[in-house]
Design a protein that fits this description.
Layout: E1 3-9, E2 13-20, E3 23-30, H1 43-71, E4 76-80, H2 85-90
């Protein structure tokens, strides 16, 4: 069975469109992530920022794993989106 997938993705959500012999399907996957904010400041701010960055990266990893699990069987994948998420998904 032929299965082509288009993925529009950013850090907030992914929209997956699957087209195959059985028809088309659209699935939305929210990241459930707050906006990633960077702060500048002293030593205490740096450690707090590092913690936020690690949490953000871990959450992104789980989000990308959820998206990847739904497109794994595709013969052809088209990645689209406005920011870095499409590149991060392609190169974990």
């Amino acid at each position: 069975m032929k299965k082509d997938v288009g993925v529009w993705i950013d850090h907030r959500k992914a929209v997956i469109v699957t087209a195959g012999d059985a028809g088309e399907d659209i699935e939305r996957i929210p990241s459930n992530m707050e906006k990633h904010v960077r702060f500048s400041g002293g030593a205490q701010a740096v450690s707090a920022e590092d913690i936020r960055d690690r949490r953000f990266a871990n959450h992104l990893g789980q989000y990308y794993a959820a998206v990847t699990s739904r497109i794994r069987e595709a013969e052809c994948i088209l990645l689209l989106g406005p920011g870095e998420a499409k590149i991060e998904l392609k190169h974990p």
